[in-house]
C-alpha cells in the first residue's frame, strides 16, 4: 500500500521528517542548554568561592560548620536540593575549618592549583564539579562544589519543558498533514474520476482551470495524447470510409464481369472480353487497396525515425530504372535532365522513391501515348513534366485531394497518387506545386 500510494508515501515521509527534525532539535537543544548551564553554574561557583576567600581567617577557630540547611527554617523553606551548592574551607595542611553543614563536610582535600576539577566526595559515587581557590592571605583554601547530576537534571528539565509541547503537537501535526496532503492530491482524484467516466471513443481534452502548476504537465500530456488518439481514430474512420467508397465500384464491376463469364456459355468472344475486363478490374482494385494502405501508413507517421542522407540524382536514376519497363509498355520515353545540382536531403529513401514513382506513373498514365516525360534536376529539387493535355484551372486547384480526379478522365485511377506525393513531401519538409506547362502538358515540382 505504501509503495503504491503517493498519499501514504507523503504522509510517512513527512511524518518521519518531522520526527527526525524533533530528535535533532532535541539533541542540539540539550547540548546548547547543558553548555550554558555549566557556564552559568561555573560562574556562580567561582563568585561564591571569591566571596569566601575574603573571610578573615582570624575569626575561624577550630573546625566549624553551619547548621544543616533543611533545619534552618523548618517551614516554608521552599524547593531546595542538598547538591545544588556546597562549600568547605581548609587550611593549607588540609584541615577543614568550616563547611556548609551539608555535603561540604564530605569534601576531600585534594588541592593542587586554583581552578575546576571533577572529583568524588565521601560516601558518594556521583561525580562533583569542584572549584578550588586559595584565600587572599594564602593560609586557607576554599572549595565550592556542585554535583554533576544536579546540572544534568536542570538541563533536562529546561529542555523537556521546551520540547515536550512539540512532542505532544506531533500527532496533531500528523493529522493536519494528512488532511492537507489529501486536499493537495484532490485534483488528481478529480482527474482520475473524470478519466474513469470517459467513453472509449471520447477525445475531448480535459479542462485545466484551477489546477496546481505541478499537475498541469501531466494534464497537458494527457490532453496531447487525447488529441493524437482522436486524430488516429479520425484517420482510421476516414480510411474505412474511403476504402468502402472506393472499393464499392470495382467490386461491383468484378461481380458483373463474373456474371458475364457465367452467362457467356459457348460464346468465346464474350467470355474472353469479360475475363479481360475482370483482370482489369482486379488490377484496379489491387491498386486501390495498395494506395489506401500506403496512405494509411503515411497518415500514422508523425515524423521520420529512420532518416538517412539521400542523393537526388542517384535516387531519380534508380526509380526511373524501376519504372522504365512500364513506361516502355505504354510507349512513353523518360529522359533525365539537369539544370542544377540539389543539395543532399535527410530523409527516407523508400518513401521518397514512392513519391517519385507516383509522379512518374501519373505522367506516364495521363501523358500522350508514345510521348515523352522529362525529369529535370534543379538547384532546389526536381520536377516531372509530361506532354499530355494538362488540366483546367478549376481542376488544378483541387489536384492532390484524396480520390479527386479531373472530370473527363478516361484512364483508370484511384485519385490517391498525388495525395501520397503530398503526404511524403510534408514528412520531409518539401513543397510540391502542380501546374500546366506553357507549351502544354502537366508539371509537378518538388522543392526543398
TrEMBL record:
PROSITE patterns the UniProt entry points to: HIS_KIN
Catalysed reaction, written as an equation? ATP + protein L-histidine = ADP + protein N-phospho-L-histidine
Residue ranges occupied by any Histidine kinase domain in the UniProt entry: 242-448
What is this protein identified as? Sensor protein QseC
Q: Which InterPro entries match?
A: 2CSK_N, HATPase_C_sf, HATPase_dom, His_kinase_dom, HisK_dim/P_dom, HisK_dim/P_sf, QseC, Sig_transdc_His_kin-like_C
Localization (cell):
Cell inner membrane
| GO function terms (MF aspect) | ATP binding; phosphorelay sensor kinase activity
- Does the keyword Signal feature in the UniProt annotation? no
E.C. number: 2.7.13.3
One GO CC term of this entry?
A: plasma membrane
Question: What NCBIfam families does the entry give?
Answer: PRK10337.1
Q: What organism is recorded for this protein?
A: Enterobacillus tribolii
Bilayer topology: Multi-pass membrane protein
- What keywords would UniProt list here? ATP-binding, Cell inner membrane, Cell membrane, Kinase, Membrane, Nucleotide-binding, Phosphoprotein, Transferase, Transmembrane, Transmembrane helix, Two-component regulatory system
Judging by the UniProt lineage, the source's domain of life is Bacteria
In terms of SUPFAM superfamilies, this protein maps to: ATPase domain of HSP90 chaperone/DNA topoisomerase II/histidine kinase, Homodimeric domain of signal transducing histidine kinase
Q: Transmembrane ranges?
A: 163-185
- Root EC class: transferase
Amino acid at each position: 500500500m505504501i509503495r503504491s500510494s503517493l498519499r501514504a508515501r507523503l504522509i510517512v515521509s513527512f511524518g518521519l521528517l518531522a520526527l527526525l527534525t524533533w530528535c535533532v532539535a532535541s539533541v542540539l537543544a540539550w547540548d546548547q542548554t547543558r553548555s550554558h548551564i555549566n557556564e552559568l553554574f561555573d560562574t556562580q561557583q567561582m563568585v561564591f568561592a571569591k566571596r569566601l576567600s575574603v573571610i578573615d581567617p582570624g575569626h575561624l577557630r577550630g573546625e566549624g560548620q553551619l547548621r544543616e540547611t533543611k533545619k534552618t527554617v523548618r517551614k516554608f523553606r521552599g524547593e531546595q536540593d542538598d547538591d545544588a551548592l556546597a562549600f568547605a574551607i581548609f587550611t593549607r595542611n588540609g584541615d577543614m575549618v568550616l563547611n556548609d553543614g551539608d555535603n561540604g563536610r564530605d569534601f576531600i582535600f585534594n588541592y593542587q592549583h586554583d581552578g575546576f576539577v571533577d572529583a568524588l566526595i565521601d560516601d558518594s559515587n556521583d561525580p562533583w564539579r569542584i572549584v578550588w581557590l586559595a584565600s587572599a592571605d594564602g593560609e586557607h583554601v576554599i572549595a565550592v562544589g556542585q554535583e554533576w547530576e544536579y546540572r544534568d537534571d536542570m538541563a533536562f528539565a529546561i529542555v523537556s519543558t521546551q520540547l515536550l509541547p512539540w512532542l505532544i503537537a506531533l500527532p496533531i501535526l500528523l493529522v493536519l498533514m494528512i488532511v492537507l496532503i489529501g486536499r493537495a492530491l484532490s485534483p488528481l482524484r478529480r482527474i482520475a474520476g473524470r478519466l474513469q467516466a470517459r467513453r472509449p471513443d471520447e477525445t475531448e481534452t480535459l479542462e485545466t482551470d484551477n489546477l496546481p502548476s505541478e499537475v498541469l504537465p501531466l494534464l497537458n500530456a494527457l490532453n496531447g495524447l487525447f488529441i493524437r488518439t482522436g486524430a488516429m481514430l479520425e484517420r482510421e474512420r476516414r480510411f474505412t470510409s474511403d476504402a468502402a467508397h472506393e472499393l464499392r465500384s470495382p467490386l461491383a464491376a468484378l461481380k458483373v464481369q463474373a456474371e458475364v463469364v457465367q452467362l457467356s456459355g459457348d460464346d468465346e468472344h464474350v467470355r474472353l472480353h469479360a475475363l479481360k475486363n475482370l483482370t482489369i478490374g482486379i488490377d484496379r482494385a489491387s491498386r486501390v487497396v495498395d494506395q489506401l494502405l500506403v496512405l494509411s501508413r503515411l497518415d500514422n507517421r508523425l515524423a521520420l525515425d529512420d532518416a538517412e542522407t539521400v542523393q537526388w540524382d542517384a535516387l531519380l536514376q534508380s526509380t526511373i530504372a524501376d519504372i522504365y519497363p512500364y513506361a516502355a509498355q505504354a510507349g512513353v520515353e523518360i529522359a533525365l535532365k539537369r539544370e542544377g545540382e540539389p543539395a543532399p536531403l535527410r530523409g527516407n529513401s523508400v518513401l521518397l522513391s514512392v513519391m517519385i514513382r507516383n509522379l512518374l506513373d501519373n505522367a506516364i498514365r495521363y501523358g500522350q501515348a508514345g510521348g515523352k516525360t522529362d525529369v529535370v534536376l534543379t538547384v532546389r529539387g526536381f520536377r516531372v513534366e509530361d506532354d499530355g493535355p494538362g488540366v483546367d484551372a478549376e481542376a488544378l486547384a483541387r489536384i492532390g485531394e484524396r480520390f479527386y480526379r479531373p472530370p473527363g478522365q478516361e484512364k483508370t485511377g484511384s485519385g490517391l497518387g498525388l495525395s501520397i506525393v503530398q503526404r511524403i513531401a510534408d514528412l520531409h519538409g518539401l513543397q510540391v506545386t502542380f501546374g500546366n506547362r506553357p507549351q502544354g502538358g502537366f508539371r509537378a515540382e518538388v522543392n526543398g
